[in-house]
């Protein structure tokens, strides 16, 4: 792009903006838009200016990622993150900053996992990591022939006789044809979440799951798996997509020698430990009893730094309140920042927090847990709330927030729904999220400063709008 | 993000999509939308599926970046890029693949630039690179006191007596408050483009320009500067933003010793050389005489690999045609891929190509020259054309193309406008573009495969729409 071109672009953009302003004024005159276009526009511009010129979320995330690092529930790092963010809120002068107690699972990965595949005389290392919540293999690891399947139907067809004593390899890729990567993740996810249960039903002794990513890479992607007490708990690991493809190829080769897979992991579940949600707010001045939550989750997987998942959401939530405060806003309703503990392997923080909604009126909750990427829009859980909020889209369009659409929420805020709270998911661009998700490369350097800041300002703006106008 | 959450998201998205489909059908019935919603939707879905599952643009870009590399006009790499892309079009079986001759400037950077700042007894290395088109400093470099200014007005106020014999340091940062980074680039750009002319008017002997980026980094960002024959041509370099801030700080310190700046660059302008635009097309079957161009520029700066600028546009333009071809499309109008030579330092390819428009009817030209980032929309040069194309936005919304808006084009296609051609700029997300632009880190690894592919499919879809319906 040349400067001349950029200048032309600029002029056209300004012309176009003027045109849009005229349209907006016309719209305001001709329809009954229930808000003050001018004042709200000016205030939202202030929020963005503060975020982009004096923003603090990027430096906060740097500390959270590089000085504390991965912070799985129950770990010393999780506790450090609690203290760090509590102090951030205190130092910002938020109201009623406190820690809400919550008992969390305490799963520990243990030694670095090892794995290899053997075919005839050939042996090759495979890049794996234990799935969260998995049992270990015992100190000597396990080795067995491999059965590759794509789904639970294939597993059922093969049956107990074939599966028993083997390691089941779930190798259904995420569908690259979907535009929203979250949709592909959702559809592939039962392999990881339910794979060990389903495989153990047929007597499998272990499970390998293709990493849930659209990238062709060598990083194993961890994530939560589940057991039920009635079925044997068998160890489960994730394998990188590159290695999954290689393993699959080896299984298809007709040449001499059967394929066996060895893996060893020493992960272990310990008794629950005490941890905390971190909470602070800007108290409402007119309707303080009506609460708007903005939040993300403080815990992260242990293998990376939890930068996109969900350090970004944590620092954006704090920043959303700080921007409002620095811009001199006295909120009508209470705007509360909630940093949830234990989203990754239990959602205990979200469940515990929701108990407050029995006695406190929660109007809306906005969660940022889809990465620190460039903002696209918001998703709203309810049709009527969505329609009510859509009238404010013109206020956000100048900031490249293109839509408020139906469908959305967040894992941590989910339990609030039954108390009548409107759930809102912040939607950043989704293309790169699963490149980093749950891996060793979900690190601070993968965050773009401006993309992170624009997200914080977008969330702050929506909290402001709801504080001013409610949802109606 | 958890799998459960992603599944909820999925269900809601599907519900929402169904709702949107109903709305679209209603819209089709109640208004006079002049296109076939169903057939066009199905065909565009084919384009995206091909791009996302069997796309070739990412591997083509890998070759262009890592096997050929930076390809400034007149360089051996530029010629290799001509041959490579010509063969790609030939091998794809495009119609009328040929090279259009164009004489291009031949500027060569020479030895790696060196620079340091001296204040009293202290000396520190500074990271600089020559601006494109700059003269050299001579083999011994130049050293002089530094005058920092923000703009040409400040320069004028200081005047010849103060400036003469010194090195002028243009240090106006790009404005981080703008949401579109291209706007900030446009506004800061005259320092680089016209700085040496303006400084030389007052007797300066050299120019340092703050790199045009919003990042706080150590990479000098090169780019074109200009001279006029009536004013002495003085050497000009770009300095990294980190070093610009340090230099500025040193200049403000009151402590002992004046600040002098030394730099040495051996860059040189050689006589023009013969090069080529690379052209191939899918011939129209009903109105072959009406041409729709899709293009990007083949040349890049020499210091990096020209991945985002504009390798992305090159491979997306080829891919746009390939997707149409593989999807079995027989275009009504001619869809032509044009890879322009010499956008960076002369636009000779764009100017030469436009001569064809005297005799060939150019309906529209789409340029991709804003990076290989996730698609946001398109910008259109003319109001009526923009309104005509906006009726097709519902076809593109499912692919996260949120708008077609007024204002846009591209440097290479600019000269076509006077021949009545509608100019269309492909608009990807702009946040990260100037992190890499014109630097050593504009390399293949900065490209996300899906973001690149989605862009190619978006361009292909718009070319399809215009081929089917014209612009009316």
Describe the structure concisely.
Two copies of one chain form a homodimer. Helix content of chain A is 39%, strand content 24%. Chain A is an alpha/beta fold.
Written description of the protein model:
2 copies of one chain form a homodimer. Chain A is of the alpha/beta class. The first copy, chain A, has 2 domains: 18-105 and 271-469, 3-Layer(aba) Sandwich (Aminopeptidase), CATH 3.40.630.10; 110-266, Glucose Oxidase, domain 1 (3-Layer(bba) Sandwich). Helices cover 39% and strands 24% of the residues of chain A. The first copy, chain A, contains 14 helices and 16 strands. Chain A has helices at 3-30, 37-54, 57-68, 76-91, 152-163, 181-188, 190-201, 241-252, 307-326, 348-354, 383-390, 393-396, 433-436, 449-469; strands at residues 95-108, 114-119, 122-125, 128-130, 142-149, 167-170, 206-210, 236-239, 259-264, 268-282, 287-297, 333-340, 361-367, 375-380, 403-406, 422-428. In chain A, the strands form 2 sheets. Chain A has an 8-stranded mixed beta sheet, sandwiched between helices. In chain A, strands 3-2-9-5-6-7-8-4 form an 8-stranded mixed beta sheet. In chain A, helix 5 (152-163) links the parallel strand 5 (142-149) and strand 6 (167-170). In chain A, helix 2 (37-54) crosses helix 9 (307-326) and helix 2 (37-54) packs antiparallel against helix 14 (449-469). The longest helix of chain A is centred in the first third of the chain and has 28 residues, at 3-30. The first copy, chain A, starts with a helix and ends with a helix. The model of chain A is unreliable at 7-32 (pLDDT under 50).
């Amino acid at each position: 792009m040349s400067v001349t071109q950029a200048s032309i672009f600029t002029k056209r953009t300004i012309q176009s903006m003027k045109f849009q302003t005229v349209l907006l004024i016309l719209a305001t005159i001709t329809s009954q838009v229930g808000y003050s276009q001018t004042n709200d526009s000016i205030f939202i511009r202030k929020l963005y200016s503060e975020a982009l010129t004096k923003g603090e979320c990027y430096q906060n995330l740097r500390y959270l990622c590089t000085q504390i690092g991965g912070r799985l529930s129950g770990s010393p790092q999780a506790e450090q993150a609690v203290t760090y963010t509590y102090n951030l809120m205190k130092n910002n002068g938020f109201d009623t900053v406190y820690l809400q107690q919550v008992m969390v699972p305490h799963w520990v990965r243990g030694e670095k996992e090892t794995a290899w595949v053997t075919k005839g005389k050939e042996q090759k290392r495979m890049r794996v990591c234990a799935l969260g919540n998995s049992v270990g293999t015992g100190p000597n690891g396990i080795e067995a022939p491999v059965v590759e399947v794509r789904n639970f139907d294939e597993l059922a067809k093969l049956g107990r006789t074939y599966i028993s004593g083997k390691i089941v390899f779930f190798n259904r890729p995420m569908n690259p044809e979907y535009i929203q990567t979250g949709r592909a993740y959702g559809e592939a996810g039962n392999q990881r979440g339910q794979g060990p249960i389903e495989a153990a039903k047929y007597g499998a002794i272990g499970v390998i799951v293709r990493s849930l990513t659209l990238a062709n890479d060598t990083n194993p992607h961890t994530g939560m798996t589940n057991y039920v007490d009635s079925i044997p708990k068998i160890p489960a690991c994730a394998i990188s997509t590159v290695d999954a493809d290689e393993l699959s190829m080896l299984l298809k080769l007709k040449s001499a020698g059967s394929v066996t897979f060895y893996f060893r992991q020493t992960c272990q579940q310990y008794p629950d430990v005490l941890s905390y949600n971190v909470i602070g707010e800007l108290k409402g001045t007119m309707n303080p009893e009506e609460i708007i939550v903005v939040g993300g989750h403080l815990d992260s997987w242990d293998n990376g730094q939890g930068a996109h998942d969900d350090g970004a959401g944590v620092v954006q939530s704090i920043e959303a309140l700080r921007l409002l405060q620095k811009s001199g806003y006295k909120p009508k309703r209470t705007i509360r920042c909630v940093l949830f503990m234990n989203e990754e392997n239990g959602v205990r923080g979200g469940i515990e927090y929701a108990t407050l909604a029995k006695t406190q009126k929660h109007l809306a909750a906005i969660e940022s847990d889809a990465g620190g990427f460039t903002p696209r829009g918001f998703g709203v859980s309810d049709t009527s709330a969505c329609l009510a909020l859509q009238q404010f889209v013109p206020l956000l369009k100048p900031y490249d927030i293109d839509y408020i659409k139906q469908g959305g929420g967040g894992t941590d805020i989910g339990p609030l729904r039954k108390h009548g709270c409107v759930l809102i998911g912040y939607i950043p661009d989704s293309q790169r999220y699963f490149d980093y998700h749950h891996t060793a490369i979900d690190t601070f350097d993968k965050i773009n400063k401006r993309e992170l800041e624009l997200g914080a300002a977008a969330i702050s703006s929506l909290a402001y709008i709801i504080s001013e106008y409610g949802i109606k």
